[in-house]
Amino acid sequence: MTNASEEPAWKQRAVERSIKTAKLRAAQRVQRFLDAAQAIIIEKGSTDFTVQEVVDRSRQSLRSFYLQFDGKHELLLALFEDALSRSADQIRAATDGHTDPLERLKVAIELLYEASRPDPTAQRPCSPTLRRACLLRIRLRSRSLTRPCWRC
After folding, report:
1. In which residue ranges does the UniProt entry place its DNA-binding region annotation (predicted)?
2. For the chain, what are the domain ranges?
């Protein structure tokens, strides 16, 4: 068996082009499944759907689904990872402009709070007073963390 470095350069380039195209197509198929599942979740308001519904919505085959995912649980995990990644990016972008660590924490908490509500148009479950109290508690705790420890 020959080593990859022993193969002619033209052959390596041809294989690389082929692999790159296959990866791109696979990524597009995965994204169509994710988009279909997300649309179903939004419509139903829950994750109570079947793989067949996702396959039908994405206009792909069941075989293609199982080539990309091990099952519904893996599809849901992919959606969850995607949501976490987007949230982390949003929090990073929103906190980049702040130098004060407490202000950064406040912005991050507010964004997480807003993002965790099931329906962004729904009323806030707690009053602004309670929210301010929570932020004050965070501020007080952070001050105690910055003070020297009496035991040290």
Report:
1. 50-69
2. 11-96, 99-152
What values do phi and psi take at 84, rounded to 5? -65, -40
| Single pTM value for the model | 0.63
Which H, E and C letters describe the chain, residue by residue? Answer: CCCHHHCCHHHHHHHHHHHHHHHHHHHHHHHHHHHHHHHHHHHHCCCCCCHHHHHHHHCCCHHHHHHHCCCHHHHHHHHHHHHHHHHHHHHHHHHCCCCCHHHHHHHHHHHHHHHHCCCCCCCCCCCHHHHHHHHHHHHHHHHHHHCCCCCC
The answer to whether the beta carbons of residues 92 and 118 sit under 8 Å apart is no
Task: Quickly tell me which residue has 């040290």 as its tokens.
Answer: 152
Degrees to nearest 5, angle at CA 148 with 143 and 151: 125
Q: What CATH number labels 11-96?
A: 1.10.357.10
pLDDT in tens, 2-26: 566 688 888 888 888 888 888 999 9
CA gyration radius, the chain: 24
Identify which of 69, 72, 41, 37 has the alpha carbon closest to the alpha carbon of residue 56.
37
